[in-house]
Amino acid sequence: MEEKETKEPKLNDYEAVIVTAKLARKINGLRLAAKEQLAPEELAAMDQRKVTTIALEELKSGKIRFERRKPVEEEEGYDLT
To answer: Which of 7, 22, 46, 58 has the smallest CB count inside 10 Å?
Structure first.
């Protein structure tokens, strides 16, 4: 069988850490906001896993889409050599 190459960019380890950290912060913010509005008995029903674990699982499963930004080109007027 032949594997088809996808046009999706692959993450290197550094990018995976950055994407996961940003997602974990977002999940944590949503979780904190939800906790403020839930009754104490409803808190037990919330996902108790760590936010980094949730973020990593979502990244591995392909639920997360990311886009690489193009590097900012250096301006010509500055020579620091």
So the answer is: 7
